[in-house]
Amino acid sequence: MKAKYEEGEVAIGLDLGGTNIKAGIVNREGKILRRMSVPTEAHQGGEAILQRIGGVVRMLADEAAAQGWLVRGAGIGTAGQVDSTRGVVAGATANLPGWAGMDLGNRLATLTGLPVLVDNDANAMAFGEAWVGAGRQWRDFVCITLGTGVGGGVVINRRPYRGRNGYAGEIGHHVIAGDGRPCNCGRSGCFEQYASVTALMGMVRSLGSPADKELSSPEALFTAAGAGHGPALEVLGEYARNIAVGLANLVHLFDPEGIVVGGAVSKQGELLLAPVRLELAGFLLPVFKQAPKVEIVAAQLGNDGGVIGAAAAFFDF
Ligand SMILES: [Zn+2]
To answer: How far is the CA of 180 from the centre of ligand 1 (A)?
Structure first.
């Protein structure tokens, strides 16, 4: 039987963040064959970012051609809200001034001569985890990233669920405390104000204890907790409970097979996930405790998830 794709077919994946543009040539097994990363230089504005992305795609396309690989297209996951049907960046964070409104799909296709697919970065990461990462054995799952903010992607039937406008999955801005901490989206009580790494370090500062040079980074905090440091355990206990409140909402809404936790802090593995699982049980409706348990696991693709997931859109799997 003829293979579905020719040998040597690849796609270019890009992950656009406020600091770096990460990119790679990805084959149909989801492996990155070549990679590059350049600074976003976001302060130069949207047009400059677009031109820089165009340059990255052309360089990788030239490299693919030199290797005899056929490029099916370029996929890009960008921070912000994306209308993926039209390939337009509908909303962007303050990290990317002048990016909102960018007609990214059409402009990049013109610059590179390639088919272009645009999604938001959290959807791309979820798609990558569905393809060759922690979600590859599941049909329906939710992926969250805990970083400076909190991103999310919902995978239904092995495809990102985008909703009517493409804005679905704003898990970081689902409200878990009606009158809670102010959020940089202008509202209050958003999940990311409780579950982001930024929030975690804010909780450390609010301890106000001078003890705590040893708690000055997330890594140090987890190490201290592992060694039985009281204040560190207290902060991480509260942090795990905050995360569990949000995850319980996701379980109640989607009844997923699992939840994949990504972002820098997911490197802590069981030090983070074990207390989250314990706390989660306390927030679930009884039926969810009697049913097969939702699995809470760490992301497997690390920093590569966005690049691999952006390319995934060009392959069936
Ligand atoms: Zn918010």
So the answer is: 11
How far is CA 146 from each of CA 78, 152, 224, 262, 267, rounded to the nearest angstrom? 16, 9, 20, 6, 11
CA-based nearest residue to 298, from 278, 277, 269 = 269
State the pTM of this model. 0.92
Residue 315 alpha carbon to ligand 1 centre in Å: 34
- In tens, the pLDDT along 88-102 reads 999 987 889 999 999
The answer to whether the CB of 62 falls within 8 A of the CB of 68 is: no
Give the Cβ contact number of residue 53 at 10 Å: 25
Binning the chain into helix, strand and coil, the percentages to the nearest 5 are 45, 25, 35
Q: Which residues surround ligand 1, an ion (CB under 5 A)?
A: 173, 183, 185, 190
What domain range is 59 assigned to?
A: 9-128+304-312
173 and 287 co-located in one domain: yes
Taking the centre of ligand 1 as the mean of its atom positions, its distance from the CA of residue 198, in whole angstroms, is: 13
Distance 190 CA to ligand 1 centre (A): 5
Separation of 172 CA from ligand 1 center, angstroms?
A: 7
Q: Is the dihedral of CA 86, 118, 97, 194 positive or negative?
A: positive
Per-residue pLDDT tens digits for 290-299: 989 999 999 9
pLDDT for residue 211 is more than 90: no
Do 292 and 308 belong together in one domain?
no
Taking the centre of ligand 1 as the mean of its atom positions, its distance from the CA of residue 76, in whole angstroms, is 24
